[in-house]
Write a structure and sequence with these properties.
The protein is an alpha+beta fold. It has 3 domains: 220 residues, Beta Barrel (Elongation Factor Tu (Ef-tu), domain 3); 66 residues, RNA polymerase II/Efflux pump adaptor protein, barrel-sandwich hybrid domain (OB fold (Dihydrolipoamide Acetyltransferase, E2P)), CATH 2.40.50.100; 78 residues. The chain contains 5 helices and 21 strands. Strands 3-12-15-14-13-16 form a 6-stranded antiparallel barrel. Helix 3 runs antiparallel to helix 4. The longest helix has 32 residues. It is elongated.
Amino acid sequence: MKKHMILLALGALASCQSHENNQETASETPADTTTIKLTSAQIKNAGIQVGTPQMAQVSGILTLQGTIDVPPQSAVSVSFPLGGYLKKTSLLPGTYVKEGQVLATLEDMQLIQLQQDYLSAREKMTLAQSEYQRQKELNASKATSDKVYQQSKAELENQRISMYALAQKLELIGINPARLTADNISKQVHVLSPIDGFVTQVNVNIGKYTSPTDVLFELVNPKDIHLALNVFEKDIQYLSVGQKVVAYTNQNPDRKYEAQVLLISKHVNADRMATIHCHFKQADASLLPGMFINAQLTVSNRTALTVAEDAVVRWQNRFYVFKQKGSNAFSMTEVTFGTVNEQQRQIEAPGITPGTKLVIKNAYVLLMKMKNSS
């Protein structure tokens, strides 16, 4: 029925234009494809009405957009603290790995040197400890000076510090210093997975030299995904922790996912929007980190700028209204939707106030006329 009425209105516009050559002529500015100008007769025959948006109490559904996200502990960038040549890896993006699984094998001369330094420091500490015990016994019987005794004690402490520092470096690259001996020094070291999850990026290949700042692999654990939604600052006051959320994807809007508001950001970005984090009651394996998703929240009564549904048009998945621009001229302006209540649409856009003149009836006629003329 709505399409039929639009076609009739377009027919009326064409008929009026052909029979009223002595009246005002319709024209469009070629340089501005968002503005259209009609004659007074065309506006009358098409039933176009101009009015202003109204401030009204609305309650209903707040529609938000966002993405599937994971907490920092579930998204890991894997690097290696020392440089080395990649000797072996079999990972591809999408590969599932378990915590502790070998991701890659690296080898380098400095790995050997580090193990050698640790074993040498351990032997020196053993020697320093023996010397300290000897000097301690001699000093007790005054067979040696206090200075020699203090020097042996300081040497022992220096060797202890050196050995423990090297031991920490070995543990950092995955080598157990307690099991290291001269017989099992290795030129290779394994890079292990810190979490259970999937490989999202592989940034290396066999034979490549990697530095400590290089990210070898990106891992993500999708079991703890959550929903990160963007909300305008004016709507933050209507949200609360524990509020129920219904989410759905563009690919499958009929499949609903229940969630709950877990955290509301205390920071508003340059776009005057804040982020809220929602926890899924039961996530689905089809929801992947980074995926775009829509969500709806039920909000209570509040005052907002509204227009009739007939004042809003949709074009290329965006929503617009027509602002009056001079005599019989109209400019198409993009708006953001809010809640819907009793066929009244909440809108928001820069420059639109309760005093702004808008087309409030048969806005689709203007859209059809503009695009057909283009």
